[in-house]
Every structure is written in C-alpha cells, then in structure tokens.
Amino acid sequence: MFMRIDHVGIACHDLEEKIAFFERTFELTVVAREVNEEQGVKEAMLHIADGEGGGSYIQLLEPLGPDTPVGKFLAKRGEGVHHVAFGVPDVTQALQEIGGRGIRLLDEKPRHGSMGSSIAFLHPKDVGGMLTELVQAPERRA
Ligand code: V0V
Ligand code: CO
C-alpha cells in the first residue's frame, strides 16, 4: 500500500527562518511553496531524494492563524514533527481500505495538497499517536 515516505511535516512559527536553517544546516533546497487556505498553512517543500513513484521531502508548515490544525498544535506542543505522509498509488482506494480496518478518517475524500497532489489524513489517536497523511502524486502529463 505505501510506496515510500513522501514527506515529514514540521510545524514552525516562522517559515522563512526555518527554511534558512534547513538550507544552511542540511544543504536542502526549496522546490515548492504554497499557501493552502483549506489546510490553514503556509508551507514549503525541501527536496531530499527521488525514488520510484515520486520524491521525498521535508515539509515546513507555518499556521495561517491560531485556530488551524498547525496553530493548535504549536500552542499545545510547540515546534516539531507534526505528521508523516506516505505515498500511495491511489488515495481514494487507500482511504477505503484503511477505513474498512476501523481507522478514523479525517477526510472522507481527497483534498488538494502540495505540488498538485491529492491528500487525506488519518486520526493520530488510531495510528499510535502519529498524524498520518496519504499522498497521491499528480498525474504525469506527457
Ligand atoms: C493533535 N493531536 C495530535 C496531533 N494533533 N497527535 C499527533 N500529531 C498531531 N499533529 C492529538 C491531540 O494532542 C489530542 O490528543 C487529539 O489528537 C485530538 O486533538 P485536538 O487538539 O482535540 O484536536 P484538534 O482540533 O487539534 O485536531 C487534531 C486533528 C487536526 C489531527 C484532528 O489537526 C486535523 O484534522 N489535521 C488534519 C489536517 C492538517 O493537519 N493539516 C495541516 C497540514 P489528547 O491531547 O486528547 O491526548 S497540511 C499538509 O500537510 C499539506 C497541505 C500537504 O502535505 O500538502
Ligand atoms: Co503534509
């Protein structure tokens, strides 16, 4: 079901400051930036590697406000790992299969994610305390 780890999401107060830290400390490069109103974040993807089915990234997340998933997380827990995202070939099918195994789905259907992907989240309480995201890469156009 999981093809790879697509990204690890890290919650931070100041996106620009964290990007600069990751660039100078780990020599990573930002390959995409987006404001995602629906998810309540301003985010940046830093490229790690390319593999079969897509790349892997660090995703830095700054909340658009306190009453958003990442805003609440920062207030409660402070900066740090917010979620782990797994690459799947078909996010709709993966949701059906995982939901059928009794895991609570935070999204019944896929939503818009970084770099044109389709994403959906699983409840952290049902996955050993880890907020889990499923990512389907966008269709490649010839
Ligand atoms: C909350 N909890 C977490 C957690 N956030 N546990 C692990 N990791 C997290 N990130 C725990 C929390 O401590 C509570 O446990 C319990 O879950 C319920 O949390 P809550 O504070 O009562 O509820 P909320 O309102 O904070 O909601 C939490 C959930 C929410 C996870 C339901 O954040 C959500 O729907 N997230 C999915 C969307 C999202 O995170 N979007 C931002 C990334 P205790 O204290 O009761 O034990 S967007 C993104 O990744 C994009 C765009 C992309 O990849 O392209
Ligand atoms: Co993510």
Automatic annotation (TrEMBL):
Record bears the keyword Ribonucleoprotein: no
**Is Signal a UniProt keyword of this protein?**
no
InterPro entries (alphabetical): Glyas_Bleomycin-R_OHBP_Dase, MeMalonyl-CoA_epimerase, MMCE/EMCE_epimerase, VOC_core
Please list the GO terms describing molecular function.
Answer: metal ion binding; methylmalonyl-CoA epimerase activity
What are the VOC domain coordinates in residue numbering?
A: 4-137
SUPFAM superfamilies, alphabetically? Answer: Glyoxalase/Bleomycin resistance protein/Dihydroxybiphenyl dioxygenase
What keywords are annotated for this sequence in UniProt? Answer: Metal-binding
List the GO biological process terms.
L-methylmalonyl-CoA metabolic process
Q: Which Pfam families match?
A: Glyoxalase_4
- PANTHER family annotated for this entry? METHYLMALONYL-COA EPIMERASE, METHYLMALONYL-COA EPIMERASE, MITOCHONDRIAL
Protein name per the record? Methylmalonyl-CoA epimerase
The species this protein was found in: Planobispora siamensis
